[in-house]
Amino acid sequence: MAIDRKQNIIDAATKSFSLFGYKATTIEQVAKLANVGKGTIYTFFKSKEDLLDEIISSVIVEIKETAEHAMDPDRPFLENAHRALYRIAEFRKQHPLTIKLLQEIRDIGTPAVQEVMKRLDRAIIAFIREKIDNAIKKGEIRNCDSEITAFLMLKMYIALNFDWEKEHEPLPKEKIAELFELYFLKGLSK
Amino acid sequence: MAIDRKQNIIDAATKSFSLFGYKATTIEQVAKLANVGKGTIYTFFKSKEDLLDEIISSVIVEIKETAEHAMDPDRPFLENAHRALYRIAEFRKQHPLTIKLLQEIRDIGTPAVQEVMKRLDRAIIAFIREKIDNAIKKGEIRNCDSEITAFLMLKMYIALNFDWEKEHEPLPKEKIAELFELYFLKGLSK
DNA sequence: TTTTGACCATTTTGCTCATTTAGTCATTTT
DNA sequence: AAAATGACTAAATGAGCAAAATGGTCAAAA
């Protein structure tokens, strides 16, 4: 056992961050869980924050893959955008690490966690933006500021998936798809 | 002097809340500022929270009036919606009380303040919703869920006016109007 | 060369106690 | 009689501090 020490550490840290949050997990705890000495962690990561950073980098890759998988090149852009964003929202809602870290931001606002989640958002926006740029190039949608559009799309999904539920019944997937189509595709004009 | 004691108290409290925040203003401070005894405050308001509540109620009225004023019955609905929402966003950005209270929510998360600002949001959404319902009735826009649409419109304005600025240059008024038109009126379809 | 845990400087925590605060009410003022 | 008041109380807050915990280092061990 204990072959890939770095992966062991990452796994242990991910588990602990998901369970107790970033602030409440200690490096010693991670070392114990990973069956390595505390010093070993610092041969792979330059700080606790750096450890979290690397973990989030994998999450970003994972999210991008999930979103990419949900898309189908034969379907229209807006449908793919919805599928991707919906999967991204699902991921956030279901992944123990993102759940815990977002909760930690709300409850204690740990700066390192805020920073890292901002980076996650930026990565998602960059991903969506790329898709928008492609769709514009292909003439699938009208020309628009892809950065702002990606930003607004993500905001809309977060609003519908997380904020709406604070005061109302959760919206079913179909309703969200319908709303996305209405506002980003058709508009309210008759 | 000291004619309308209740108004004095409200004025003093508004000033103090705007300057120091809700948590950091004491009832005694308000009493001093208003030139009344502490007990007098409790003949008009049943608690500190109730005092804040009444102040926010006036703010709600004020915001509604400002928004109403910005609208012109001869212009199309979407233009009016933009004008109203833009004014509402401006108000939030410029009114010392809302600035301070929103900052207090970010910094220390005072529960009473969170509650009261939620109420403000609900009032704005209700206001917009009414306008949407009217526009639907008059056939100005296509039928839609007015509650969700109002919710999304406000979210979009907050996103463009407050969240966008955290990572980018502020968007000029015209750009925001253009984006609003694009997404809520026309959509991205060609 | 890689791994390790004792070690160090700094933070965080748990605790006490004095101060402050929201709210009450008997007394004073009008 | 009605309205206003501020001394008072119970509860909350926060300053101050000792003890414990924590992130990170590094000389020794493997």
TrEMBL record, chains A, B:
InterPro entries hit by this protein: DNA-bd_HTH_TetR-type_CS, Homeodomain-like_sf, HTH-type_Tx_Regulator, HTH_TetR, Tet_transcr_reg_TetR-rel_C_sf
Annotated keywords: DNA-binding, Repressor
The keyword DNA-binding belongs to this UniProt entry's keyword annotation: yes
TM segment ranges: none
Gene3D superfamilies the UniProt entry points to: Homeodomain-like, Tetracycline Repressor, domain 2
Coiled-coil region(s): none
Keyword DNA-binding tagged: yes
Every HTH tetR-type domain range: 3-63
DNA-binding region positions on the chain: 26-45
Top-level taxon of the source organism: Bacteria
UniProt protein name: TetR/AcrR family transcriptional regulator
Taxonomic placement: Bacteria, Bacillati, Bacillota, Bacilli, Bacillales
